[in-house]
Amino acid sequence: MSPCVSFVIPNWNRRDLLLALLGSVRAQTLQPVEVLVVDNGSQDGSVELAREAGARVLELKANRGFSFAVNRGIEAARGDLIAILNNDVELEPDWTEKLAASLEQSGGWFAIGKLLDYANRDRIDGAGDAICRGGAACRLGHARPDSVFFYTPRVTFFPSATAVLMRRGFLERAGNFDESFFAYLEDVDLGLRAALLDMGGIYTPGAVAYHRGSATLGAWSSEMVKCLTRNQILLLAKFYPWALIWRFRIPILAAQALWAAMAARRGRLLAWLRGAASGLGSSLAVRRSAVRWRKDGNRLAEILLRSEGELVRVQSAAGWDDYWRWYFRLAPHPQEPAP
Predict the structure, then answer these.
(1) 143 shares a domain with 256
(2) pLDDT value at 1 more than 70
(3) Digit-coded pLDDT (tens) for 193-209
(4) N or C: which end of the chain has fewer CB within 10 A?
(5) How many secondary structure helices (H) and strands (E) does the chain include?
(6) What is the pLDDT of residue 151?
């Protein structure tokens, strides 16, 4: 029996992107049982386009954010497997079939494929995610040439919400996306919960999608910088016990200071300040609501060190970004060589 797959696609005012994505969905060798487009109050004809393409549309009256929209789609979905897709991706025809087979063979809770850059298809957009001890996350291999290094399947705890296939039971146990994150790092938040629950997924490099990257808000837009800054602080508040914040104080200071410097270099210091103020202002409430995730600081430390070690190995093999080169000079990984 073929697996029952529901596609959930959040969308906001990018009819052109949605058109291309829905075309690649129709071309899948394993067809979904349904396609749900959750529209965040678009004014560009996206809703009409989605309906004409045969999708079921959930209309929101205003932009409530990525996490809110995806959660409404998950709640409405009927499939045993749920594919979550950004509207700025396009899928190879066998994407769904390969990820579903990977889940069946591995027994993993979710599966992600290889993301290639839409405009430069010999370059990696992301081969899974990782997070450092300082609370900053990245897409592994981003902007590096595709190579044999990225051809090997591996276990991962981070279900990149750009394009992921999940078992319904994964979300029932780990929980849906945290709506307080609005947009960006909501999948890293879910990944940390998955890791603490020991619910691993599988990276399946043969399942390929093409990603335009920050096509809705824009790369290095003020809103992107604000959201990322805010949500990095919320990750620290939600998951790090006070003792771990003290233990990892140098990596935390290094990661956040370097991120501020990058924002300032691109003329986004004000956006960084707004994000930092918003994150600090929300941190106590987030901390109070997430006590269960801070019960085992030693376990979280192991997860962070493992993830950071993977980040070092990918950077060493594929080439160092300036941010990570400086981060590991300021906060060397205890078990991996510094750049």
Answers:
(1) no
(2) no
(3) 999 999 999 999 999 99
(4) N
(5) 12, 12
(6) 95
Q: Give the lowest-confidence range in 86-90, 182-186, 271-275, 332-336.
A: 332-336
- Is residue 132 domain-shared with residue 243, that is, in the same domain? no
For residues 6 and 31, what is the distance between their CA atoms, to the nearest angstrom?
9
Instruction: Give the torsion through C-alpha atoms of 97, 98, 99, 102, to 10 deg.
Output: 120
Q: What residue has token string 């990603």?
A: 211
Q: Which residues of 116-152 are buried (b: 16+ CB within 10 A; e: fewer)?
A: bbbeeeeebbbbbbbbbbbbbbbbbbbebebeeebee
pLDDT in tens, 148-177: 989 999 999 999 999 999 999 999 999 999
Q: What's the pLDDT at 215?
A: 52
C-alpha distances (whole Å) from 249 to each of 284, 294, 298, 330 are 18, 17, 15, 12
Contact 270, 317 (CB under 8 A): no
Residue 150: which residues within 8 A CB-CB, separation 6 or more?
A: 114, 124, 127, 141, 205
At residue 2, the pLDDT reads 77
Please name which of 162, 246, 251, 171 lies closest in space to residue 208, comparing C-alpha atoms. Answer: 162
The confidence score (pLDDT) of residue 119 equals: 92
Q: Which of 211, 245, 263 is where one domain is finished?
A: 211
Tokens of 204: 């399946």
Residue type, 176: N
Averaged over 98-112, what is the pLDDT? 97
Q: Which residues pair with 112 in a beta bridge?
A: 164, 203
Q: Are 239 and 294 in contact, with CB atoms under 8 Å apart?
A: yes
Residue 20 has pLDDT above 70, yes or no: yes
Please report whether residue 82 resides in a domain.
yes
Give the phi and the psi of residue 199 in degrees, each rounded to 5: -110, 85
102-107 average pLDDT score: 95
Q: Are 8 and 85 in contact (CB under 8 A)?
A: yes
Copy the structure tokens of residue 187. 């999948």
The dihedral over CA atoms of 114, 151, 189, 98, expressed in degrees to the nearest 10, equals 60
Q: Which residues contact 119 (CB under 8 A, 6 or more apart)?
A: 212
User: Which position has the token pair 């609501």?
Assistant: 289
Last residue of a domain, one of 178, 211, 244: 211
pLDDT at residue number 217: 54
